[in-house]
Design brief:
Layout lengths: L60 E7 L4 H15 L3 E6 L13 E5 L1 E2 L3 E2 L4 H10 L9 E2 L1 E5 L8 H6 E3 L9 E4 L2 E4 L9 E3 L13 E2 L10 E2 L8 E3 H4 L3 E2 L4 E4 L4 H20 L16 E5 L2 H5 L5 E2 L9 E10 L9 E7 L12 E4 L5 H11 L6 E5 L4 E2 L5 E2 H8 L8 H10 L3 H10 L5 H10 L4 H7 L7 H7 L6 E4 L10 E7 L2 E3 L5 E3 L1 H8 L5 E7 L13 E6 L4 H15 L7 E7 L9 H9 L5 E6 L10 H7 L1 H9 L3 E7 H19 L3 H13 L3 E6 L2
Parallel strand pairs: 1-2, 1-3, 6-15, 7-11, 7-16, 18-23, 30-31, 30-33, 31-32, 33-34
Antiparallel strand pairs: 4-5, 8-14, 9-10, 12-13, 17-22, 19-20, 19-29, 20-26, 21-25, 21-29, 22-24, 27-28
């Protein structure tokens, strides 16, 4: 997670808030709600189009289970199910919490599951993961067919471990598996695919720890697990296969740092033929019919009229997490006026709310989109923001709680500030009335225009309204907008307070993202600007989430903490926790805090507080790295770690714990500095030093809370 935000602060595709957790990073999002516009009901206004009940399928039933933390796996599950229906498979996307492993034998299941933190499954996939790991016995999944696709981000040190958990290197190779050429890499293509389909997604701080003998290839479209990054004839025995399941197609891995959607698409090109062969179905060619709209969106002039319609239940995993209204008791600036940026310290009261936290946990903030952005988008698409909505999909569920006003949907439920995905650009091309704009959008959505699209959308940090403004002839209805935009996801922050000091107050430390782009356009992060706007006494919808990022139970154990920028957040919680233990009479072990920022004057977060901790003996060593303090010098935390390697190694020898929080690149450099220190000071080989670091990780003595850039 972030010392700041764990989810993409700028919205899907913009990792400006330091996505935590997350892996998605970081943050990725797939606009996968495809649906159809229908006639309005009741007192609603009449809309164009007719409800399409969809094709009638007669093929085998396949359940597509998703375990999602940021919504990507959920969106992909729904997209896959819709494509499967076109191919005559009876597919349905289902929350993984509803998966019953003891009833899975003889079924066709697809699991799409994200990973985060230190290789953990998502909250709603935890019970399934634990069962496979600890309880499942040989034969429990007899006759179940499955396939596994993992999604990760190669910015993270540990790539796609939950995906590889389901499909790891164990058995002797099967020489009968035919091979295909895939991006110049030989990929085994077995004749049978299971439908236990695991989609393992990694977002910032949502990255798992894979088996030690597996590394990823950033250059391979499908980065299949392999020893030391070399793709050889796999010798996989999947976790599902161990219990009796039958794999239909080999594991595929997508990389969010490159083009995860394209990786997924190319893997599906292997999946569908394998499924058709397995079930004895004729090959089905699906013609490209453009973007489909299959949601039934009804609008009403009054709440009373909307309430008379049966309200469908939300199918989004976002709505399954209980939240509370936390009261803002403090919202102050941490940076100096000369810094040219803003970093906020917030305190959220949870007394009497029925929630609690422990030092090192995360808080998930249910952010709201900027009011001005909502008004501008409503004006651009020509909708009445005060109309009421009821939205229903083919399965009788809704992508968000209904009924609600259009304004509420755009403010709380839809990610209107995220980077539009290629599917949205394709839809815009279809909706453009100007030939020149249509051709330009079609080019951006094509393979040839891939790099230009990245420059225009991601590097240019443009959201849905920005693109709509640039292409004035594009016309969408509110129903189409609801179809195209993904759900607004919670943003995760490392709690910067100590539970033994302020048990009913959650502290948040976050840099506000507000940058002026070329032409005077402003890009604002969704959650940090939401937090910035909260006044004392106002409320913030949020929840607390447990993490393994914890101090040792014995306070006499040495502790090393490394944090850069808002990566200090969990470290602040830790040193406050330790200080309370000291005041209560505990004997503290040796501790070191390595902190980095730009200057000692402008962004030295909680500098006075840290100084006090040194004076009273809570922090034994305070090591700072001010990267812009002295002209011509750029010291960072990894440099200080290298300089203090002897002290750090001595503390680790004494059973110490090591914690690091910040960008993935920084965390890699910190680990590299430690390894170099072991080689130089202890005479270890590089392999021996890496093995030692791996051992620390397995013992829970080396922990990372990181996010992608």
């Amino acid at each position: 997670m972030l010392g700041g935000s764990r989810a993409s602060d700028g919205g899907s595709g913009f990792d400006m808030g330091k996505l935590m957790l997350p892996a998605i990073g970081v943050g990725i999002s797939v606009a996968a709600m495809a649906a159809a516009y229908s006639l309005s009901q009741g007192s609603s206004k009449k809309k164009k189009g007719k409800k399409d009940k969809g094709p009638q399928v007669t093929g085998p039933k396949i359940n597509v289970y998703f375990g999602s933390q940021t919504g990507t796996a959920e969106d992909m599950a729904k997209s896959l199910a819709k494509e499967g229906i076109k191919r005559n498979f009876d597919m349905k996307a289902i929350d993984m919490e509803r998966f019953e492993p003891l009833d899975a034998a003889g079924t066709n299941c697809i699991f799409l599951v994200a990973t985060y933190g230190e290789g953990d499954p998502t909250d709603n996939a935890r019970s399934c993961f634990d069962w496979l790991q600890d309880e499942g016995k040989e034969g429990d999944l007899d006759g179940m067919t499955y396939a596994v696709f993992g999604l990760g981000n190669t910015q993270y040190e540990h790539y796609n471990s939950v995906g590889t958990f389901f499909d790891r290197l164990r058995c002797p190779p099967n020489p009968s598996l035919p091979f295909l050429k895939f991006r110049a890499s030989p990929i085994p293509c077995p004749a049978h695919v299971s439908l236990c389909f695991l989609l393992s997604l990694s977002t910032p701080a949502m990255q798992p720890s894979p088996p030690s003998n597996q590394v990823s290839s950033a250059s391979s479209c499908l980065a299949f697990p392999r020893p030391r990054g070399i793709l050889t004839r796999p010798s996989w025995s999947s976790q599902c296969g161990k219990l009796g399941g039958q794999r239909v197609v080999e594991l595929g891995l997508g990389d969010d740092d490159k083009d995860i959607q394209e990786d997924f698409n190319q893997w599906k090109d292997l999946l569908w033929p394998a499924l058709e062969e397995h079930f004895g179905l004729e090959s089905t060619e699906i013609a490209d019919q453009g973007v489909e709209y299959r949601l039934k969106v009804s609008t009403f002039t009054t709440e009373k009229a909307a309430m008379q319609v049966a309200s469908p239940k939300s199918s989004s995993g976002v709505d399954q997490t209980p939240t509370v209204e936390m009261t803002v008791t403090c919202n102050r600036e941490l940076y100096s006026a000369e810094a040219g940026r803003s970093c906020r310290h917030l305190e959220l009261d949870i007394q009497g709310k029925g929630v609690s936290y422990e030092t090192g946990d995360h808080v998930g903030i249910m952010a709201a989109n900027d009011e001005n952005l909502v008004n501008a988008l409503g004006y651009r698409i020509g909708c009445d923001l005060d109309e009421w909505l009821v939205v229903e999909d083919d399965g009788g569920t809704s992508p968000f709680p209904c009924p609600c006003t259009v304004r509420h949907a755009l403010t709380k439920y839809l990610d209107i500030n995220g980077a539009p995905k290629k599917k949205v650009i394709t839809a815009m091309a279809e909706a453009a009335s100007d030939d020149g704009e249509k051709q330009r959008l079609e080019h951006l959505a094509s393979k040839k225009g891939k790099e230009e699209l990245t420059d225009y959308i991601v590097k240019g940090r443009r959201n849905f309204l920005d693109v709509m403004t640039d292409f004035a002839s594009v016309s969408f209805s509110i129903a189409q907008v609801i179809e195209l935009l993904p759900r607004l996801q919670p943003r995760y922050y490392s709690i910067s307070s100590a539970s033994n000091v302020t048990p009913v107050s959650v502290h948040v430390t976050a840099v506000v993202v507000a940058d002026e782009m070329e032409g005077g356009r402003m890009f604002k992060g969704v959650c940090t600007n939401h937090l910035y706007s909260l006044s004392v006494g106002s409320h913030c919808e949020a929840f607390c989430r447990k993490t393994p990022f914890k101090l040792p139970k014995d306070p006499s154990v040495p502790v090393v903490m490394v944090g850069a920028g808002t990566g200090l957040a969990p470290m602040r919680g830790m040193y406050l926790h330790m200080d309370h233990q000291r005041r209560e009479g505990a004997s503290l072990g040796e501790s070191m805090l390595v902190f980095g920022c730009r200057t000692s004057k402008d962004d030295f977060l909680y500098g006075d507080e840290m100084g006090q901790m040194v004076e009273n003996g809570t922090i034994t060593h305070l090591v700072t790295a001010f990267s812009r303090e002295v002209k011509g010098e750029r010291p960072y935390v990894q440099h200080r770690v290298k300089q203090r390697a002897a002290d750090i190694l001595r503390m680790l020898d004494a059973g110490g714990h090591f914690y690091v929080c910040g960008l993935t690149a920084m965390a890699k450099d910190v680990k590299k500095s430690l390894i170099e220190g072991m080689v130089e000071l202890r005479g270890m080989t590089g392999g021996e030093a890496e093995a030692y670091m791996e051992k620390l990780g397995k013992e829970g003595r080396y922990m990372q809370d990181v996010w992608s850039s």
